[in-house]
Design a protein that fits this description.
With 77 residues, this protein is mainly beta. The protein is built from no helices and five strands. Strands 1-2-3-4-5 form a five-stranded mixed β-barrel. It is globular, with a radius of gyration of 12 Å. It starts with 5 loop residues before the first strand and ends with a strand.
């Protein structure tokens, strides 16, 4: 069931040479699906997101030195 709450997720940036992830808010649609929201400073000419705002994505939990986070892994069809 959808919770319609906002969660912070991380989107991979394309063309960076190394793995770089951009934090952004997403609407939790339930069932592990999230709708990517655009931050106020979003500029598609500056950053090429793997999944642009408006995309519905699946996320998985990932671990970093700062703790657990949600990483977008694939676009939902």
């Amino acid at each position: 069931m959808a919770s319609n709450t906002k969660r912070m997720i991380y989107i991979r940036l394309a063309g960076e040479g190394t793995d770089v992830f951009r934090p952004t808010e997403a609407l939790d649609l339930g069932g592990g699906l999230f709708k990517v929201l655009a931050p106020p400073d979003y500029d598609p000419e500056d950053e090429k997101w793997e999944f642009p705002p408006g995309s519905v994505v699946e996320c998985e939990k990932a671990q970093s030195a700062k703790g657990e986070y949600l990483r977008a892994t694939k676009r939902h069809k």
